[in-house]
Amino acid sequence: MNRLPLGLIILLVVSILVYFGVAQRLLDRMRLSDKGALVIIGALIAGSFIDIPISRGNIQVAVNVGGALVPVGLAVYLLVKAGTSKEWMRALGATIITGLVIYLAGSVLMKGDPGERYNLIDPLYVYPLVGGIVAYLAGRSRRSAFIAATLGVLSLDVVHWLWLVNNKIPGNVYIGGAGAFDSIVIAGLIAVLLAEVIGETRERLQGGPSSVNRDPDVLQNLQAPESVRHEDDASTTKEAGGRGK
Q1: Number of domains observed in the structure of the chain
Q2: Burial grade of 27 (CB within 10 A; 0-12, 13-18, 19 or more)
């Protein structure tokens, strides 16, 4: 797949939004700080230019740092920070489902010669669109959706590698590299945005975030602004009472 700069452009835009605090609420729910998010984005961008060869011979395999190692590391971090074991299972299950659906969609939409009825969309856009939507539907939470989307798309390169080995076909495999990097970035962004927009809408309709089976630390972060306001109000009232004596 030919490398498109779309993934890098999206990361640069996201980094600007994070720097100006636009994504603070979303980052809090994913247990990431602004600095941590910027470090990860920097690692994704810098790592996208680094390929680590892991296999030589008829089948040459290389792992891209930004497109494979960093997303896997971030997924592990998010799993460790997951509120419940149920979210662990949901994230892993959603990853498997997302990978299977992307594979099936790609095998259908990419099958045949260009111009045939099923070959409608460039696979570089099929994978992130399908991956992002399926990851949200299967994962639901922001963390689970992001993990499922990124690892689901990444798994296609691994499947391709195993297919070459099983059929003893020479070839080159760049896990997380080339166009896969852009697909991973876009899929993760789509999944998180769907989870944020739809999740925020649901919370507003029900009058606030549900506290059932939620991580106490997450709930505390969500409630922090309100508690700060109460402390400020109490301090103001105390000071006013002191001046009145």
Answers
A1: 1
A2: middle
